[in-house]
Each structure stands twice: as C-alpha cells, then as structure tokens.
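Why does residue order matter? Because the sequence determines the fold. Keep that principle in mind as you read this record.
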Amino acid sequence: MTITSIGLIIITITIFLFVLLQFEKLFYLSIFFIPFTATGVFLINRVNRITGISVFDYIVILCLLGMIVNIKRKFAINRIVYRLIIVYMLFLINLIISTLLMPLLINGNTEGYDQYGNLYPINLSLFNFTQLLYFLFSLIIIFVFLYYMDSESRLLKSIYIFIYSGVFVCIWGWYQLASNIIDNKYYINIFNNMNEGYKQVIYKNIPRLVSVTLEPSNISMIMIILICLVLFLRDDLISKKMKYIFLLIFFISTVLTFSTTSILGLILIILYIIYKNLRYLQKIKINFNRIFYVILIFVIMVSILANYYNVFQLITTNKLSTASGVERFNRMIYSLNLFLKYPIIGVGLGSNETYDGLSKLLSNSGIIGFLLFIYLIYLINKNISNVRNDKLRNVYTSLCVGNNIYFVVALFSGLNFTSPFLWCVWGFLFSILNIDKRISNLRHDSTID
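Structure:
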C-alpha cells in the first residue's frame, strides 16, 4: 500500500481539521469529493488492476471517527427515516445471507462472471467479502449524512458544495479531454491515480470525457443527478443566471462522455420536462423557462452529435453490433438465467458481475432483494408529500427525479453497489426527511407555547 501525492495533501488537511475538532468542515470536504471515484489516498497494486481507498471513503471514515469522539452530541432519527432504514437493513441482510451462504451451497457447480468478464465456478472467495464490505460501507455513509446534515442551512450548504464540485469535475474533464485531443501531457497522478484507462476513446480514436471518475459512464450518472437537481431548484435557491451556466456546463460534459448512459439519461430528462410542461399546458399555464431548457438541450445535443453521427449510432442503434454490446447482451442473458436458477436470494455479491443493473440486482440478490430495493425507491418517492418545508420539499423533489432517472438508466447501463454515489444521494434524501420533521416539531412546540 502506498500513499499518493494528492493523498499526502488530503491527509495533512484532514488530520489538521480532525485535531481541531472541525468535523463539520471535514464533512463538507467529503461532499466535494463525492464524484472523485478515480482519486485515491492509498493505492494497492494488484496483478490486473490498481485499487485503493478513495479520497471520499477516507474522509467519511474520519467523519465517522468524529461522530465517536463527539458521542455526547444528540442524534435522533424520526419515524419516517427509521422505516426507510429498516427496509434498507432488510435489503442488506438479504445480501449478507446470499453473499455468504449461496457460494458455499453452490460449491463450484455453477459458473458466474467475475470482474474481468470471465466465467468461473462460483465459490466463496475474498472478492465476495470485499464486495460485501463495500456495500456495508453504504450504511455508514447514510448515517454520516444524517448526523452532520442536521439543519436546513447545513443541508443547503452541502447541496451547493455538491453542485460546485460537479462544475469543477466538468472543467477538469475538459482539460483532460483537451490534453487527449492535442496529445499534451496529462497529469494522471493528481486526480486519476486509480484509473489507468483515463484516456478512453471511441469510433476512430475520438477521445471521451472521463475527468476524475473511473469511466465515462460514472461521470454520466453524476451529471444526471446534478442536471435534475439544478434544473428543478427554485429561483430563490439558485439564480436563473447561475442555473443557465451550470446546466450548460453539465449538458455539454454529459454529451462529451459519448456513452449510452448519457444519451439515455438526457432523453429521460427531456421526456420528464415535456411531461411536466404538458401538465402545465392543460392548466393553460406555459412554463417558458423549462421550454427554453428543452430547446437548449436539443440544440446542444444536435450541435455536438452532428459532427459525430457515427459515434451516436455506435452508442445507440448499433450498440449491439459492437463487441462491447454483444458481450453486455450475452452477460445479461446468462445472468437472468442464473437468477431463474437461484430465484429466491440470488448468488450474492461478487459471485456474478454484469454490466446492466437489472440482471445484476436479480442475480445478486434474488427476487426478495429486488422487491425490497424497488419498495425502498417507492417509499422515497412516496415521502415527497410528507416534506412540509417548501425549500426542503423542492430540493427533495429535485433529487427524487434525479434518483428515479438514475435508477432507470442503471437498470440498463449498470448498477454499481460499490460506488458511493447512489448512497450519497440517498443520504441527502434521508437527511431532508429528518430535518423537515425536526423543523415541524419545533414549530408545533412553539405554537403550543
């Protein structure tokens, strides 16, 4: 295990903040580094790949230690959030049982895909344990978010940091893309020390935007959430001028990934905007701002993709004719058959790796895990009506739209249980529900007094 150059800087800053008991600032720092999936503090060199501890994971661990140091501080979870956590815990228990039990029962009699795309006999291995530990870490992320985002001001500050982090990621991605185009030196050791494939190309060596993430699909998923968040935030939370600037940056960056994930995500966002405006038209109230956004999206996509028509075909209509598309499809069919063979709790994490979220969720967790996961998303959306604070409801609704589109896209392009991004979004959502209930209780108490 080695400490990276950026890791030395991060460790120095975070230890300084920890010693000064500035745990809140530590948490804000973790929010900024949510998208930095290719940036490691510690690296572990393996035979086939480089892995390690990301900046975000490292800071979250320090935030958890901060919770232990500051254990006397009151920390309460309301009934709504408690119910969500219970369902989430049931999903975790299902995964724990399937991950530890099923490989033992199968005992090599059935094959699954490993992380490198090879079929191998399913047995209990170290990879099963590491995948399970990564997933258990998601619960720590959610509790850290609930603990530190305990007020409206802290939540909004975290949201703004998250948005500006996305802007930085896009600008850095443009620098990375420009370096690839002009064949200039790109400093991989700064933010891409866990990503040897940062220089990804598509049709006739056209470079793709990767930025500080592991692959183009990662940044596409992040942009989907950020676009929905910025697009639907109220004007008193973010000015129209800044909204236009942020959306322009996010849309351009999303398209420049040249991934199927980005195209599908943008199409779903556009369809949702059209649907919302059709409802307004029924009330004879046209929302010109959102219509402008639709036109803006269309112009940006057409202007960029017009020069890359073959690329557009490659990542959409001709996807299945490529080697990557054929491999993805074959792995999906195999994984669905694996689910039919072990339908109750699946074969567990790490026993079968797929590119699409649907077959992965079914083959890894079975029908029980799949239904619990769907039910959890249903409960998250259902609780929109329970948020009484106007600002919080607006942020919650915006994140819910992004979360729903993220999930639909992930069903086709891949649901990564080990990536912290989805759990961070859920951390935001759970925290909003917790804060809103606390505000409602304070108002109720003041009314009684």
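The chain has one domain: 2-197+309-448.
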